[in-house]
Specification:
Layout (H helix, E strand, L loop, with lengths): L2 E5 L3 H12 L3 E5 L11 E4 L2 E4 L8 H9 L11 E3 L4 E4 L4 E4 L3 H9 L5 H24 L12 H6 L9 H6 L5 H12 L14 H9 L2 E3 L4 H13 L3 E3 L4 E7 L2 E7 L2 E4 L2 E4 L3 H8 L9 H5 L6 E9 L9 E4 L4 H9 L10 E4 L14 E9 L7 H19 L7 E7 L1 H8 L31 E3 L10 H18 L6
Helix pairs in contact: 1-9, 1-15, 2-15, 3-4, 4-8
Length: 492
């Protein structure tokens, strides 16, 4: 039996490995760290348990589809709870608890702007169409040829998908209240571009938020990783942890050998689930790379982040599980990420307090607090700057909650660009991957297939379909289908 080697045990690598194992391939995964999960690792200290990466569970249908592909159910691996309210938003003059469900969400908007509920219905009806057609006809495509998108349904609906309209303009056709606009624009902020530069197609993210809901896997986001890992083991995938790939060897146009920190592995097919740019620039000779250094420098990256993991020895009233602090200038922070990259002057930030939902992530009467500031990738990162921003956002957090929090912090850890680079070989220290701009959509993303080596493929957030946990699961499925077509087992 011929062997597939997957580099990296993140969501995309786990997905690709399992789909290929199911198809009958012998699959091994080489992972730098001591366990699976990639950016979705766990850090535990003194009774506090922190998900280090992804914290939002959206698009539950994608996870359901994933496990159903193997004859399983999501509930076989973890229990989901729908959050209601979904999250809290702190504006300069108000606080909104965002209710679960389209009708209640519409009532909230109507209380701020006459006609907003009916306009929300129009917006979500269009977004539902984009979600259905976009997911089936765009997101699950490999992006290797423009002909993939030539089917009549896509051609006929291309203008209804709003690929050539901006998210900003699309929303302003329906709403005027600045708080409503910020609320509906926030999901695309993490796609890697300002709403003015993001195709209105991505209102499908609002559909995921408002209609499909915000969920929490009890025990934390790592429960997804654990479920995917357990499934992969059941399918016969073998894992080699603490095995960082350090070099490769090409024979007759095939990547045949991978040298790791623990030994050499031979492969018939290789999937790069680690950082695409790192694989190209550090593991391949220049003549085998898809893209030049100039190409990568010209890419628009999704943001990086400054993160703080805080264990607090008291309760913090006024926070929900998810909290968005939009109490500073939304447009200015976006400009400081995308137009004139620098450390932000007065950033928006996000606070996750999973102990509001899950008593097992913190000691009794304590809170588990995760703070995130979106940043431009590639900034200079040092401890002095991290501490400056820690106090900047803690000032606002304490003011808005009316609580002294800093004096009650018993566990503290920061994480930013240098950590993303050191831990994940992340290009420019990005946290989310490649931005979903129009010029980086579908066939315009870095190819999932190496054009110069016959057996090297890529998966994850720097290739199709893009950043986020659900897209990473899809990316693994999509690349596995391409391998099955290109290297049928009968011909190996």
């Amino acid at each position: 039996m011929k062997e597939v080697i997957v580099i990296g045990a993140g969501f995309a690598g786990l997905s690709a490995a399992s789909f290929l194992a199911k198809a009958g391939y012998k699959v091994s995964v080489l992972e730098k760290h001591d366990g699976p999960g990639g950016r979705c690792r766990v850090w535990e200290k003194d009774g506090f348990k922190f998900d280090m990466g992804p914290s939002w569970y959206w698009m539950p249908d994608v996870f359901d589809h994933y496990f159903e592909s193997f004859g399983k159910k999501t509930s076989d691996y973890y229990e989901l709870e729908r959050l209601n309210p979904s999250y809290k938003v702190f504006f300069p003059d108000q606080e909104w608890d965002i209710p679960a469900g389209k009708d209640a969400f519409g009532d909230l908007l109507e209380s701020q702007e006459a006609g907003a509920k009916e306009n929300l219905k129009t917006f979500l009806d269009e977004a539902a169409y984009k979600y259905e057609v976009g997911m089936k006809s765009l997101v699950y495509k490999p992006g290797r040829s423009i002909l993939e998108f030539a089917e009549w349904r896509v051609v006929k609906s291309v203008f209804k998908l709003d690929l050539f309209k901006s998210m900003s303009g699309h929303l302003r056709r329906l709403f005027h209240d600045q708080r409503i606009l910020q609320l509906l624009e926030f999901p695309v902020l993490f796609l890697g571009a300002k709403p003015q530069d993001t195709p209105a197609l991505y209102s499908l993210m609002n559909y995921a938020d408002i209609a499909l809901g915000t969920w929490y896997p009890k025990g934390g986001m790592y429960q997804i990783v654990q479920g995917m890992y357990d499934l992969a083991i059941e399918l016969g995938v073998s894992f080699h942890f603490n095995s960082e790939v350090q070099a490769t060897e090409v024979i007759d146009g095939h990547l045949r050998y991978l040298q790791t920190s623990v030994g050499k592995f031979r492969a018939d097919i290789v999937i790069g689930g680690a950082d695409y740019h790192h694989i190209e620039s550090q593991l391949l000779e220049k003549k085998y790379r898809n893209y030049s250094d100039e190409y990568w420098e010209s890419r628009t990256m999704a943001p990086s982040s400054l993160l703080f993991y805080l264990g607090v020895n008291k309760r913090i009233p006024g926070l929900l599980h998810h909290n968005l602090f939009f109490d500073s200038d939304f447009d200015q922070h976006a400009r400081e990420i995308y137009d004139a990259p620098k450390w932000p002057s007065n950033p928006l930030f996000y606070a996750s307090c999973t102990s509001k939902t899950d008593s097992k992530v913190a000691p009794e009467a304590c809170e588990n607090l995760f703070l995130l500031i979106p940043l431009a990738p590639g900034l200079k990162d040092d401890d002095v700057t991290r501490e400056k921003y820690y106090h900047l956002i803690m000032d606002r957090l304490e003011e808005r909650t009316g609580e002294n929090i800093r004096d009650h912090i018993v566990v503290k850890r920061s994480y930013a660009m240098l950590d993303f680079i050191n831990d994940y070989n992340s290009f420019k220290g990005n946290a989310y991957g490649l931005a979903n701009t129009l010029k980086q959509t579908a066939v315009l993303k870095p190819s999932l297939k190496n054009k110069k080596l016959k057996n090297l493929y890529y998966t994850g957030q720097l290739t199709t379909p893009g950043p986020g946990v659900p897209p990473s699961l899809i990316s693994g499925e999509v690349v596995s289908r391409e391998i099955v077509k290109d290297f049928p087992i009968a011909t190996l």
